[in-house]
Design brief:
alpha/beta, 6 helices, Oxidized Rhodanese, domain 1, four-stranded parallel beta sheet
């Protein structure tokens, strides 16, 4: 049961979100099946796993699988990267493929992410 406050819709820019229950992006956790479960159990917004910008631009299968939406809206994608041109191109690709909201990772403490200069 979602409390009254959490049940209230909200907006991120022009995008309406049905309630305030948000599944944060978690690398290695928020894959498509997990996002679908969270959505079915009432999350108003679910975010993709971190999508590496350069890999998305370079058309890797792993990045495309992370970018996929399950048909629910809004579709929010988290991008990671360290070079502005890759980030900009990846954001354009994500938007062209249905992302309603694009989040830029700026705080992931995972060693793998920090090692690529893409986290906190």
């Amino acid at each position: 049961m979602i409390s009254k406050d959490l049940a209230a819709p909200f907006r991120i820019g022009p995008v309406s979100v049905r309630n305030r229950v948000v599944l944060a992006p978690m690398s290695g956790v928020t894959d498509m099946p997990f996002r679908e479960l969270a959505w079915r159990f009432g999350a108003g917004l679910v975010v993709t796993e971190m999508v590496a910008s350069r890999e998305l631009v370079n058309d890797t299968a792993e990045s495309w699988s992370r970018l996929r939406a399950a048909g629910f809206r809004p579709h929010m994608v988290q991008l990671a990267g360290r070079e502005a041109h890759w980030m900009a191109e990846a954001a354009k690709i994500a938007a062209d493929h249905g992302a309603d909201i694009i989040d830029i990772n700026m705080g992931c403490p995972a060693k793998k992410v920090i090692g690529g200069y893409s986290g906190s």
